[in-house]
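Hey, sorry to bother you again with one of my protein questions. There's a protein on my desk that I can't quite get my head around. No rush at all, and the record is pasted right below.
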Amino acid sequence: MTEPLMTSAQFETMRLYLVALTVLYRLVIMPSYLQAYLNLAYDKIQELKQEAGKISNLDLQRRVIRVFYYLCVVTLQYTAPMILILYLSFLYKTLGGGSWAALHGEAAAVVEDGTCGLDECSGVDE
């Protein structure tokens, strides 16, 4: 094979599609991850039942409520990197002159005034 499988514009468009699909997939499976985190409260109760001695009501409440207090933090830690990556890839598409239709070969990359295309930015730094 002497010719590449994809052009540069098609490669960049494929990368944008893959980033968007990955973020969408992670958002779809997010409830199962959050449910697994919430199941930690049940596991902590089971650990307390295994301990010998008297269990105070306050200790039981503290162990269970700690899981629910940090649910927002866990959700933010799960979603913030995805949102940041998606935002940066859209920014790259916009500033780099990329196109959503370049994968199909229907339209050439649209480059606005004051920006450079995907292949043209190498000479700008000089």
